[in-house]
Amino acid sequence: MIDLTIVFDNYKGEPGFETGWGYSCVVKRNDEFLLFDTGADGQKLISNIKKAKIDPFLISKIILSHAHKDHTGGLKEIQSLMPEAEIYAGVSFYEEVKKLFPYARLFKVSSEVLKVNQGVYLTGELEGEVKETALVLEAKDGVIVLTGCAHPGIEKIIEKVTSEIKPKVLAILGGLHLLDKTEEEIKNVIVRLESKDVRLLAPSHCTGELALKLFKQHFKERFLKVGVGTTINFEDKQEKVLQDKKDDNFGCQWKGWNR
Ligand SMILES: [Fe+2]
Ligand SMILES: [Fe+2]
What we know:
259 residues, alpha/beta, Metallo-beta-lactamase, Chain A, eight-stranded mixed β-sheet, 25% helix, globular
């Protein structure tokens, strides 16, 4: 299974988790734990990770999508807890991270696709108002794409994923930065996502209220309302399907607060 648990978000998910502006998600895949972004506040992040019954000491890799503080603000605390964890930072802010953590196990993410592990990829930094990399996980029915803020544009990110990593996108999670977009612009994004046959959308953070509303209207049961504390489970690519799955669940189980 691939288990995704949102541990930092400005949207509420499950009761008992602390909200805050920013994003972070723990990825559990087989026995490996990755942390995608670190939210804005390390103490809140660690408290949410523990609340989700995840042992922060098991996190072996930290992926930073981009340099913004609401995605890197928790790095200091989490790094001091697990100094052995690998940190992946884009070339646009790698030197800043290196200055702050000279002894950390740092990896530079260029603009090229990077295979981090079997079935785990980074898109590499894409150009935009802020350079940003997305995390891509190979699941049974396609890839799961995690974005921090999607500053380069979600269409551009999905284009790179489908042309250079895997052609089928199962799900998108994270911030989509459509806060300042008009209804027409958001509807164009929907058309582009449909043209790529994206099956599930679980956006949050900086996606914007209007975009969330239009996504929900359009994608219906393919739209998941998520927030801090939400966990989504996907079948891994290698797993055998033990029982027949209904066609409409896309190999995904989700415990949502407003289902
Ligand atoms: Fe953000
Ligand atoms: Fe951002």
